[in-house]
Write a structure and sequence with these properties.
alpha/beta; single chain; GMP Synthetase, Chain A, domain 3; Rossmann fold; 2 domains; about 475 residues
């Protein structure tokens, strides 16, 4: 496909399909025939453009308008800290900004185009004339984000064959569509000419799931953390999906079984993907990990190999390069991306055991926190857990864990019993140095903007729309 707009125009299924946002909706036909940028769209042709809007619906429409028109478009998520915005603008060589006047704007960019309150008929030349570069930002916990350069071809590499035979679907996701996981679902909906219900960062889980029900959503995705939170809400019992998808974190057997019990008639799958490596594979057999045979039978063109326990991926879905001040390349000389995700073969299956950069060193012995969490999460009263390191004068560090229970607040005696049961399970399943030295029952765990557990302490960063201390270029007013 030459552009997302062209793909949407060619679906032939636009009459009743819509994008449903938190505060409004847009018909897919309007995306093809209307414009929220009005007569300003020609000014953005062949430029590097920051998409700096608060609302996901506005972001989705801007993406459709700019693909094939802009030289480069940068998808800025709503949690982008204002102090990182100048770096992002410089690294992307931004020449223009599309904004909704609700966010601070980087200084020094002369072309600032406001996003219109409603679509107007597009009267100019709309035929896409170039291959637009797509820039996605990673969701690190400290420092400026990495800028990852993709193309529409790399972003849709795992989608085209799937959507060709797809029937009518209504998609939704807990993700923000400006993150890789959420963008994959938006593209699945648009390329297939299907409707989608978009979430909102300031929306309660029950409120979002109420809209999922109202929108008759059939296909819904999120991280395991998203799903653990959702399954504890009243709204989880009202939705009736045909397809449930997980990605972004390790999908352990506990969350897969929990979803199977809650939605027995739904197809369930967990995908392995990253912003840099793209979608590698999808597992739909209800089991954690992936079959060892995938290493020798590439799924949809993705090649896998294991080097020193780390999963590496080569495919046409891999991003092209980083922008800005990033030292390492995305792929090695052979085109493989080292994901940093560690796997271990158990029989005819590979099981994810954690991240290489997340290992806890206990007296020279390695502990993967995800392995400890998988054991803790098996307890029937545990909703979620987080294993972490605590300094120790003797061995350098020991493992401790924070645990969220599924039930309401309990008596102290009951809490003691549950802790004892969890520790007993850990002693039966884990080596002694991996058993938590202590457990702490907590009401919740910190979750990052991408829907993943926050594993490293970092200063709290309010979203860019909450700050006002950024210089605004006078031409933006």
């Amino acid at each position: 496909m030459s552009s997302l707009w062209t793909a949407l125009e060619n679906t032939g299924r636009l009459a009743n399909q819509r994008l449903h946002g938190h505060t409004g909706e847009v018909a897919l036909g309007t995306l093809v025939h209307g414009s929220w940028l009005g007569g300003r769209l020609p000014e953005l042709r062949d430029r590097s453009v920051l998409i700096l809007v608060r609302d996901q619906l506005a972001a989705a429409t801007a993406i459709v308008e700019l693909d094939g028109i802009a030289r480069r478009m940068v998808l800025c998520p709503p949690d982008l800290a204002s102090e990182h915005l100048p770096y992002v603008a410089a690294a992307a060589e931004a020449e223009a900004v599309v904004h909704d006047r609700g966010a601070p704007l980087p200084a020094g960019i002369g072309c600032c185009v406001p996003f219109g309150p409603e679509a107007v008929p597009f009267n100019g030349e709309r035929v896409p004339q170039r291959r637009t570069e797509w820039v996605l930002l990673t969701s690190g916990t400290t420092g400026p984000p990495k800028l990852v350069l993709h193309s529409l071809a790399s972003l849709t590499g795992a989608i085209r064959a799937e959507t060709a035979a797809a029937g009518s679907r209504i998609w939704s996701t807990f993700y923000d569509i400006r993150r890789y996981g959420g963008l994959q679902i938006l593209l699945r909906a648009l390329v297939g000419g299907n409707s989608m219900v978009l979430s909102d960062a300031n929306e309660a889980v029950d409120e979002f799931l109420h809209r999922v029900v109202a929108g008759s959503v059939t296909h819904i995705s999120g991280t395991p953390t998203h799903w653990r939170r959702a399954l504890m809400s009243q709204g989880a019992r009202r939705i009736n999906p045909r397809y449930v998808r997980l990605s972004g974190e390790i999908a352990d057997q506990e969350i897969l079984d929990w979803l199977a019990a809650e939605y027995p008639r739904a197809d369930r799958a967990h995908a392995f993907a990253s912003t840099e490596a793209g979608v590698a594979f999808t597992v739909a057999d209800g089991r954690a990990g992936f079959p060892a045979g995938l290493l020798h039978q590439p799924e949809s063109g993705a090649e896998l190999k294991i080097v020193a326990g780390s999963l590496r991926i080569r495919s046409n879905r891999v991003a092209e390069r980083y922008l800005g001040n990033v030292e390492r390349r995305i792929a090695d000389e052979e085109g493989f991306v080292d994901t940093g995700d560690l796997v271990e073969r158990r029989g005819e299956r590979y099981i994810f055991i954690g991240r290489r950069d997340g290992i806890i060193n206990v007296g020279g012995m390695k502990v993967h926190p995800e392995e400890v969490e998988a054991v803790i999460n098996r307890h029937p009263e545990v909703q979620q857990s987080l294993a972490r390191a605590r300094r120790n004068a003797v061995v350098g560090a020991v493992v401790v864990a924070d645990v969220v229970l599924r039930s309401a607040p309990r008596a102290a005696a009951d809490d003691t019993t549950v802790k004892a049961e969890i520790l007993d399970a850990c002693r039966r399943s884990l080596a002694p140095h991996k058993v938590p030295a202590s457990l702490r029952l907590v009401p919740s765990l910190a979750v990052g903007p991408a829907g993943k557990l926050i594993r490293r302490a970092a200063p709290a960063e309010p979203p860019f729309r909450m700050k006002a201390n950024v210089n605004v270029d006078a031409t933006c007013e």
